[in-house]
Write a structure and sequence with these properties.
The protein has about 450 residues and is mostly helical. It has helices at about 15-20, 25-30, 30-50, 55-75, 85-95, 100, 110-145, 165-190, 210-215, 225-230, 235-260, 290-310, 325-350, 355-360, 370-375, 380-400, 410, 420-425, 430-435, 445-455; strands at about 150-155, 160-165, 195, 220, 270, 350. A hairpin with a 2-residue loop joins strand 1 and strand 2. Helix 3 packs antiparallel against helix 4 (about 55-75), helix 3 (about 30-50) crosses helix 9 (about 210-215) and helix 11 runs antiparallel to helix 12 (about 290-310). About 40% of the residues are buried.
Length: about 450
């Protein structure tokens, strides 16, 4: 039992299969930097508070810095037989410093240690995800600024509904991502609370200074209850929840791109670097990036469900079930980062085909509402105008023409309110340009939307 830091109570070696089952170093080793930084702060506080000798505190700090440098350089490799990253670092420190290294764990438990490590790790990851989302926002805004007057059909029920612009459509996703940024930033605030000093569950009898450790590590405040400090994983669940919503937005965007680059739409063309071919069909150019994002969205939902189910039935304080939190949250983080890093340049390099968008907008009677509004502006009740316009659409379908090409005499058969100016009122450009209400597709409105997003990125 000499190999286990917690030896003493046990008289038999742990079964090798239990060791393998119990070990978490294969996935928690990624927190080594946070574990060492947290230990340095803890050792600093122990020395300053007189809990350990200042000379030993300095030796521990230098030893930890040496371990960090050796891991970073590759000189020191993780021992797969170690139980977890915390025990690996402590064992290495003890091997280098002897009894002095054994003093590091004074006044703390692995319970509050891992709670600290994962908060520190997720803080860094959250900031990286925020930067990736901001980069995608900037790409969307950049494309939108080039297509303020690119007319395309807007859809409901995947049926052509009303004319909008490509910029207007893109800015819908920019607003979704803006909300994602808000959720991630809020999540970061609640994550930025320091749990070290909670001990195993009941804090410690040593005269520690938790606020000092909090200040060294750059947290906003300390946790207020030691039981909650070691058993809280709300911040993990909240982060995966925010990531899940972000992935849902990426998946919706991906679905539209899949449709847009199909021959049935052909609104865009993906760059060859972000598409793949078929092993048997030489003509194929497949949007695999976007299809994978759709698939990986379900994977992230699974990660969220893993944590919710894991936490729902465990009593206070720490339980070994909670070791399962890291694989799920790390997988969600890695997945969303990979998706963002691939989606952003794919979007930036795609070719937009305005002529095809305009041609699609010319079909489907998407200016019918504007035709009805034309009559309303001449004093007719909307429901009457709606019925007349519906009749006109039916006439066009029978005659194989559009509202723009239907002769004026056909209009006048239904009401004398129609005049030559109806053709100007129902032109696609007029339909779009006159929708100047805040949030609408008119260029000046979309410019305001762009400035709004820019200010909040």
């Amino acid at each position: 039992m000499a190999g286990k830091m917690w030896a003493g109570r046990f008289t038999k070696e742990v079964d090798e299969r239990v060791n393998d089952f119990n070990s978490s170093i294969s996935f928690d080793a990624r927190m080594y930097r946070q574990d060492i930084e947290g230990s340095i702060a803890h050792a600093t506080m122990l020395g300053e508070c007189g809990i350990i000798d200042m000379d030993e505190s300095r030796k521990i700090i230098e030893g930890l810095k040496g371990i960090l440098a050796d891991i970073d350089s590759g000189k020191l490799q993780f021992d797969p037989a170690a139980e977890d990253v915390h025990m690996f670092v402590e064992a290495e420190l003890t091997a280098r410093l002897g009894d002095t290294g054994k003093r590091l764990h004074t006044a703390r438990s692995r319970n509050d240690q891992v709670a600290l490590d994962i908060r520190m790790n997720l803080k860094a990851e959250t900031l990286e995800i925020i930067e990736l989302v901001k980069s995608l926002e900037k790409t969307i805004v950049s494309i939108a600024e080039k297509h303020l007057t690119t007319v395309m059909p807007g859809y409901t029920h995947l049926q052509r509904a009303q004319p909008i612009t490509f910029a207007h459509h893109l800015m819908a996703y920019a607003n979704m991502l803006l909300r994602d940024l808000g959720r991630l930033r809020d999540c970061y605030k609640r994550m930025n609370v320091m749990p070290l000093g909670s001990g195993a569950l009941a804090s410690t009898t040593y005269p520690i200074d938790r606020q000092r450790v909090c200040d060294i590590l750059g947290f906003d405040e300390i946790t207020q209850n030691s039981l909650d400090g070691v058993s809280d994983r709300d911040f993990c669940i909240e982060l995966i929840s925010a990531i899940s919503v972000l992935m849902m937005h990426l998946s919706r965007f991906s679905e539209e791109i899949i449709m847009w680059c199909s021959w049935e739409f052909k609104f865009i063309e993906l760059d060859d670097a972000y598409a793949t071919g078929s092993s048997i069909m030489p003509q194929k150019k497949n949007p695999d990036v976007t299809e994978l994002i759709r698939g990986k969205t379900g994977r992230v939902y699974g990660d969220l469900n893993t944590l919710l189910v894991m936490m729902k039935g465990i009593p206070l304080a720490y339980n070994k079930d909670m070791q399962e939190d890291k694989e799920a949250v790390f997988d969600a983080i890695d997945t969303v980062k990979l998706c963002l890093k691939t989606f952003d340049p794919m979007l930036a390099t795609m070719t937009v085909l305005p002529e095809n968008m305009r041609a699609a907008a010319a079909k489907g009677f998407i200016n019918a509402t504007d035709c009805a509004d034309y009559l309303v502006k001449k004093g007719m009740p909307f429901r009457d105008a709606y019925k007349i316009t519906g009749t006109l659409v039916h006439t066009c379908i029978e005659k194989g023409c559009t509202l723009e090409t239907l002769p004026l005499e056909e209009y006048k058969k239904l009401t004398d309110n129609f005049d030559e100016d109806v053709y100007e009122a129902i032109s696609l450009e007029t339909c779009v340009m006159q929708r100047k209400a805040a949030g609408g597709p008119a260029p000046e409105s979309v410019k305001a939307q762009i400035e709004y997003v820019k200010a909040r990125i």
